[in-house]
Amino acid sequence: MVVPAASIFPSVPTTESIVGEAFDKFNFHKEPGLLQFWECITASDSEEIGCYLTLTEQTYMLTRDHEGLLQDYRRRCLESRCRFVGVETKVGKWLPGRAAQTRIADHRTIHHALNPEDQHPADIGGKGQLVLPVFRDQGAGSNLVGVIEYVTSVPKESYVEDFEQIHNLLKDEGLNSTYRGKTIKVAYNHIIKFTQPLSAKFRDLRREVVKRFPELKKQQELCVEYDDTEGNRLPISSDEGLQVCLAESSSRGEKFIRMCVISNT
Fold it and tell me: Coiled-coil intervals in this record (predicted)?
């Protein structure tokens, strides 16, 4: 008896099929939402290192869109569904492109919508948004295969729970994503760099700074400052202050946040 090769070597599920299954299992909690997948296609015709982000036509999930706002957003995305993203490409505030470029997830929350200085792109408007790059493990490394975009008609306070849900659905099928965070550069007697989750508290920031500047352990109150959108230097001394700083950085499309420590001695 001849055994079909397919039964000996089962087919490897495609990235789209895995992402599609994750979309089917995603819990929208009965809220309006759109999930769509931007596939990363290697740019063989370009001298610049990068890929074409192409919005897939079949891999998406849309729920409870009574006003048609999310469907309209998807339609506009499909009109420009293929965009090149290289290392030096100016992606502006297009979050899927930014996620592909930085390899870090990002979001637009209610903090952005409430910020009068924040200018949303015309297509996203005042909606909320979460984007996360998707990787497939290959040998000792991982390869970017696309970006998942989650859009809500109303911005949320936080997308941490949604990120964790998608991340867990993907990892069960061999795909993974980077956690949501920002690169922080802190200057004291020299400059140090680390990544901070967007859900971080002020105590988390303090711990990372003190870990790298042990001499600051003696200070009961750590004075950390950053420059806001108008160039004003503002202190960060609470969870709320840190969240405002992180939100402003996302709204400006910055890849990292500059901070400095002011010594009290």
Answer: none
Instruction: Write out the residue range of the structural domain in which residue 212 sits.
Output: 181-262
| Same domain assignment for residues 70 and 172 | yes
Q: How many contiguous H segments (helices) and E segments (strands) does the chain have? A: 8, 12
**pLDDT (mean) for 167-187:** 84
d(CA 41, CA 85): 10
- pLDDT digits 0-9 by tens, 111-166: 665 544 444 455 677 899 999 999 987 655 678 999 999 999 999 888 888 988 99
User: What percent helix, strand, coil does the chain show, rounded to 5?
Assistant: 30, 35, 35
Note the pTM of the prediction, 2 decimals.
Answer: 0.71
Q: How many CB atoms lie within 10 A of CB 224?
A: 22
Q: Which residue has the tokens 């967007």?
A: 198
Task: Identify which of 55, 51, 100, 62 has the alpha carbon closest to the alpha carbon of residue 78.
Answer: 55
Give the C-alpha separation, 109 to 127, whole Å.
Answer: 9
- Number of domains the chain is built from: 2
Helix (H) or strand (E) holding 222: none
Q: Are residues 156 and 191 in the same domain?
A: no
The verdict on 160 and 194 lying in the same domain is no
CA distance 99 to 258: 20
Q: How far, in Å, CA of 4 to CA of 43, rounded?
A: 36
CA distance 33 to 91: 24
Q: Would you state the structure tokens that stand for residue 122, as one six-digit string?
A: 């015309």
Provide the CATH number for the domain around residue 187: 3.10.20.90
CB-CB contact of 224 with 244 (8 Å): no
| 107 and 188, same domain (yes or no) | no
Can you give the CATH number for the domain in which 32 is found? Answer: 3.30.450.40
3-state secondary structure (DSSP) of residue 215: helix
The β-bridge relationship of strands 181-187 and 256-262 is parallel
